[in-house]
Amino acid sequence: MSSSSRSRSGPPPRWRKRRSRAALSVDERAQLAQRRRSIKEDALNLPNLLTFGRIAVIPLVLWLIDRGSPKDCLWAAIVYALACITDLLDGYLARRMNVVSLLGKFLDPLADKLLVTAVLVRMVPMGRIAEWAVVLLLSRELAVTGLRSLASSEGIVIAAGDDGKSKTALQMVGILCLLIGYPYHLNLYIFDLGMVDLVPVGRALVYISLFFSLKSAVSYTSLFAETVQAKGGRSAKA
Fold this sequence. Notes:
Strand order of the largest sheet: 1-2
Oligomer: single chain
Distance between the termini: 54 Å
Order of helices and strands: HHHHHHHHEEH
């Protein structure tokens, strides 16, 4: 092919592609910078800082558990309780301050699962909770998380039901009892309960939460299946 014919046909395709990318690079860089600013701003708002704090205290809770004295276990329970309070607080603040973000929606449930998983797994070798219960609970969490991700990709929102909320509340109190881990003398105003070992109480609460956990997983699966079927029926009619 002659040089004149090459000049008429224009530059080679690869060169044109590089040129096109260069022409778009300014806009792409601007969009990328905007996304980075947005993520940085989201990460530094108060609700998400509380969520990061909940993740940051996990090593502290595990360290206190490993020390193992009654005082250390009590402090572990106190730190865990404060982390649970931030779980309630960050969602409220995000709505009140109008800073609900995609990053927060991702981090909030992740922080909860990391905290609960770390504590429950550490409780197994200490004999405070049976390993089969922890396996079932963690398997349920993984399954429901995967189901919600799949539902989200299909444009379906699966909200937490009453069973899921009951599971969370029972689990929170049960883990607190497991963390305390030693008998204490309890007085409830005029009632003297004597020495109470909170480990069996916590174990019972976690087992009850397991029932609600599995029940809610069945409800989520049924709701997802019904929604997909209904969505498929509407698409077919259209």
